[in-house]
Amino acid sequence: MKYWLIALLVLVYGRLLAQSDSDSGVSLAARHFATINRLCATPAAQLWGCTLAGPVLLVDPVTRRVFANQPDTQGLLQAVGAVYSGKLPLSVNIANTATQWAGVPWTMLMLPLPTDQAEQEKLMAHELFHRVQPALGFAGASPVCDHLDSEAGRMWFRLELAALAAAWRSQDRIRRQHLQRASWFRAWRYQRFPAARQVEEALEWNEGLAEFTGVYVSGIAAQDTSYLPGLADSATVLFPSFARSFAYLTGPVYGMLLSQIRPGWQQVLQAGDRFPALLAKYYQLSKEVPNAARVQAAAKYYAGDRIRQEEAARERQRLKKEKAYWAKLVEGPVLELTFTPKMSVSFNPSQLFPLGEKGTVYPTLTITDKWGRMVVTGDALMHNWQRLFVSTRGLQPNDNTDNGSTIRAADWTLELAAGWTLVPGSRTGDLQLQPPR
Length: 437
Known about the structure:
Layout: H1 2-40, E1 56-59, E2 65-68, E3 78-80, E4 83-87, E5 97-101, E6 104-110, H2 117-136, H3 151-168, H4 172-192, H5 196-218, H6 220-223, H7 227-233, H8 235-238, H9 247-261, H10 275-282, H11 292-299, H12 304-331, E7 334-338, E8 344-347, E9 353-354, E10 360-362, E11 365-369, E12 372-376, E13 380-383, E14 387-391, E15 405-408, E16 412-416, E17 421-424, E18 431-434
Helix pairs in contact: 2-5, 3-4, 3-7, 3-9, 3-12, 4-11, 5-9, 9-10
């Protein structure tokens, strides 16, 4: 009787804890939704001439429990008070993003959200923009800017950032001088890397606009005037790689500088407009690209020699890392996964490593596709968003069954859909996917 009573008490206590956790999650979600509603009701949230309000999902990446501010169209979410709750299937990647699920276009936010209120609201507004972005006519292009991981590309980008930070801290004629030099550094970078303009401006017109929206709507730059130049000053710490993340830095700085001289600029955009040209237009900057001597002289205003030395040292480390990635993901035995149109992916944009014509190394990412779900925890090589290569190091025995299987290696876990198997690839030791027969 004694042991039965103890077991009953444990069961009841466990259920109370679960109920408490559930109530806590619902309460927290309700508070976040209230913050979003308040944020969307502010005049700043009308910056694009439309409301940012809409369907929102809050997702716990550990439990995959999801909270929504409205029902879905397929009955997958259940009402819990004023919140709707359910569980996100493994086929849907979890990320801060805009996504389509259960018949609804959502803004998805990962829990926990930032504890700092301004940072939290910045993230909310950034992702709310991505949901309305297609209706506003802005393409969601996310190219990897390989040149911004090179020694020269990084150096001239850091000089541009330094000049932008100095411009933000200045006014009138002095501000224009700093902005003019920033334009020189960018133009000089484009001369060194002819393909840079297209990919940089595409990413800025996606993530850059979204991050500008987050900064503008949250008011974070108005609350702390050192916020934007602080981002530029801390760029190399915040973003180990600029290849896919640089627009998170330039977008808000360019956008806020434009808002100061031409309020509402974002509502009068024309086809082909981009940040550099808009800045030159409204601040009346010269479009002339100076010669090398003048650019080098301008660099001295922003500790150019120190930046050059730092980037030379980083380049030596980068080459060592490149050699290791090449041996692991190009020359070594790999598993090759080919994507279908159903592919979706989530990843950290701040740590990518370009590997030339072979593709880009993603230290971590999650991919779902027709063949199943791949979770990478230790490097994968993405080639043209068509194929993925991961090392077979530490591969455990394949236990394929008709109901699917889970296959693990040192750096990844692959959950195969029913009928899919791994078969030998074109080289000794390589593997590739084989669909159901």
